Amino acid sequence: MAGRDWLMSTERLRFGVWREDDMALALAIWGDPEVTALIGGPFSPDEVAERLAREIDNWRTRSIQYWPLFRRDDGGLAGACGLQPHPAGERTAELGFQLCRASWGQGLATEASRAVISWARAHGYDTLFAGHHPENHASRRTIIGLGFTYTHDEYYPPTGAMEPAYFLHLGDS
After folding, report:
1. Which of 63, 98, 118, 133 is a Cys-bridge partner for 38, taking CB atoms 3.0 to 4.6 Å apart?
2. Which residue, among 143, 130, 131, 125, has the nearest Cα to 89 in the 3D structure?
3. 111 to each of 24, 78, 102, 115, 138, how far by Cα in Å?
4. Helix 23-30 and helix 45-62: axis angle, to 10°?
5. How far, in Å, are 6, 10, 89, 148 from residue 86 at the CA level?
6. Which domains does the chain have, with CATH numbers?
7. pLDDT above 90: percentage of residues in the chain
8. What is the pLDDT of residues 85-136, one digit of tens each?
9. Contacts for 7-12 with beta carbons within 8 Å, 24 or more apart?
10. Residue 1 above 60 pLDDT?
């Protein structure tokens, strides 16, 4: 994507930073009912706009967000991956990823998450949290493959489900 600064890159991906004019990109991820089915969706355009505003605010106030991911080969949107604040404190964040359907099954969530884990370690985070809907087996495999340890089930209000919760202590990985 021309005119965009890159936060970091992997072999196949570039991480951007959400901007106010990114509503079409945000809709491509969080407006897709299949992408959001297991995270509390489907979301209306107004809800997607609220999500985009939260991501921009997280960047402005905390220097973290679920950063938009772009393919290095063609510049296309692949999804989002990054960090969100977590109630455990300033040195703990929640790792999350949502991929556009065209990016499913290619190992991009793992590739992007590894980059985010390295970024978190370099920026002083001690611990990362991750969770997933109990029916999202792909996310489960990704989270465990990244080295997270299951600790408990936790109620997630957007889905109304008890969801498996995991932690990764960055000194351990």
Report:
1. 133
2. 125
3. 24, 12, 16, 7, 14
4. 110
5. 25, 25, 6, 16
6. 8-169 (3.40.630.30)
7. 94
8. 999 888 999 999 999 999 999 999 999 999 999 999 999 999 999 999 999 9
9. 7/67, 7/119, 8/115, 8/119, 9/72, 9/115, 10/111, 10/112, 10/114, 10/115, 11/72, 11/111, 12/71, 12/72, 12/73, 12/108, 12/111
10. no
C-alpha distance from residue 100 to each of 31, 92, 107, 124 (Å): 10, 27, 13, 30
**Cβ atoms of 113 and 98 closer than 8 Å:** no
Q: Does the pLDDT at position 172 exceed 80?
A: no
Per-residue burial over 21-57, b if 16 or more Cβ lie within 10 Å, else e, is ebeebbebbbbbeebbebbebebeeeebbebbeebbe
> Nearest-CA neighbor of 148 among 161, 164, 125, 135?
164
Query: What is the residue-wise DSSP string for 5-68?
Result: --SEE-SSEEE----TT-HHHHHHHHT-HHHHTTTT----HHHHHHHHHHHHHHHHHHS--EEE
Sequence-distant (6+) residues with CB within 8 A of 155 are: 161, 162, 163
Contact between 82 and 118 under an 8 Å Cβ cutoff? The reply is: no
